[in-house]
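Support reply, case 0932

Customer input (verbatim):
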Amino acid sequence: MPELGAPLELPDRRKVLATRIRWLVAATISYNVIEAIIALTEGTRVSSSALIGFGLDSVIEVASAAAVAWQFAGRDPEAREKVALRIIAFSFFALAAYVTVDAVRALFGVGEARHSPVGIGLAAASLVIMPVLSLAQRRAGRELGSASAVADSKQTLLCAYLSAVLLVGLLLNALFGWSWADPIAALVIAVIAVKEGRDAWRGDTCCARAPLGTVATRDCCDN
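Our regenerated output:
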């Protein structure tokens, strides 16, 4: 038994980090299921492309987190990493395609978005919760050297960015009656999703460190 306060042996540290990532993934999935139900229901009710896009992002967030959970459920998570990254990338591209079509339809007058206090409250809550989950998972993923865990943490952080975009769009519509702000916010969501999908496809997660017990071959960003 190691003495109290002594550093963990390398295999023990990897186990601790993998367990932490699984718990963070579970928390992300739970929150996003709730978020998706509220956003999609409310978005459909008020004809909001931005809210629907936000809800679909939550669904994709669940798929992304589930991919990482599947990866770390195996005996050799690194062997499943490439597949998990591909799933995350495809989920971003699918989100971007759907939201773009829906936003363009809204800009041409197919369904004008109405005010949504529920959507405003949801966006504000996500703006607070998502960065906390993302930071915790990103730190664990970087230390473990897991590109998929870092990619999933970036998708969680994307949810925070989207929350800010959604909040601005909904507030502009509610305060000034600018219904066009809703599809514009949705298009911003689509552009960000394409970028993140491309980064996940390339494995550019800025960045997972070299796995514990190995020597890093390149520098890593710190932000």
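We compared this against your earlier run and they match. Two observations from our side: The longest helix spans residues 10-46. Residues 1-8, 205-223 have pLDDT under 50 and may be disordered. Please reopen the case if you see a mismatch on your end.
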